[in-house]
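seq:
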Amino acid sequence: MSEFDELQAVIRRHANERQGEERACEALINALYHALRAASGPGLPLNNVTLDFTVDPTNCLRPIPTGGFHAAWLRLGLCEVLVRVRRVEGAFQGEYGDGGSFRLETGGRDELIVLARRILRDVADTYAGAGREQVRRLN
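struct:
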């Protein structure tokens, strides 16, 4: 068997695992989208939240190997936040925005609401802090 054939066999052999992982990560991102819409509390949906799945800019291989990140842009009104998620030892590990990170064991509704609120706070802090940093650099 040539090295090329061996590569193809490995990719085929792990296809189901990769696809399952992709479905789980995309389901979590979709659930996070719904959590962001509900982050203001019951009966107060955030209507300016949209979801756009995208190719993770750091992935250098396609199909994405097992353990690779799956990504989406979450539009939060006037800004967009890149969210990246992967499975690590059965848990969801992710990154968002400008250095935010998270780890969710189950991806349950309560965990996602807490994460959604943290993302909103962190993004607001990033924009609030960015303005102050510019002023300091100018003075």
